[in-house]
Amino acid sequence: MDIKDIKRMMIQSFFVIFSGSVLASHINRLIFNAAEIGRHEVTALLILSILADLAYFIFYSKKDLSKKQMTIRYAFHFPAILGITLGTASFMEWISWNEPIEIIVFIGMVMLVYIMVIVVNLYQHKKLAIRMNQKLKERYKG
């Protein structure tokens, strides 16, 4: 992916990451009977979303990536996202390293948001491909 594609993907994904993070944080707080989400936490989730979004630079390439290369980059992308989110969660004291269940639930929430972002991106790519194919059909129809 070139830098233009990365930026477009980051912009599209940011809002999904942020809203998914807020939702996951709310669910996590319901599970563990924690306090409500305050302004400080929302700001931290905003920063977390920006940091997670920056991990898309793993996909940067001056040439088109093959399916195998994309798979390899996804294999690096998820651990990077997990490191960013666990690091932020630890720093913000959202999780305790002494409570394995908290960490497991948190990782599960990260996985759900990650899957949600992938599904939205795939949907966006599919919509774009359909639109492009339709325009090609119209152009070469006559």
How would you characterize the overall build of this protein?
By secondary structure, this protein is mainly α. It has one domain (3-117). Helices cover 79% and strands 0% of the residues. It contains four helices and no strands. Helix 1 (3-31) packs antiparallel against helix 2, helix 2 runs antiparallel to helix 3 and helix 3 (67-91) runs antiparallel to helix 4. The longest helix has 42 residues, at 100-141. It starts with a helix and ends with a helix. The model has no long low-confidence stretch (mean pLDDT 88).
Total strands: 0
What is the CA-based Rg, rounded?
A: 18 Å
Proportion of helical residues: over 70%
Domain module tally: 1
In terms of DSSP E residues, the strand content is under 5%
The shape, in one word, is: elongated
Largest sheet, in brief, is: none
- Helical run tally: 4
Order of helices and strands: HHHH
SS-derived structural category: mainly alpha
Low-confidence residue ranges: none
Distance linking N and C termini: 33 Å
Mean pLDDT: 88
Q: What is the topological layout?
A:
Blueprint (H helix, E strand, L loop, with lengths): L2 H29 L7 H16 L12 H25 L8 H42 L1
Helix pairs in contact: 1-2, 1-4, 2-3, 3-4
Summarize this structure as a short list of keywords or feature phrases.
4 helices, single chain, 142 residues, mainly alpha, 79% helix
Short description:
With 142 residues, the protein is mainly alpha-helical. It is built from four helices and no strands.
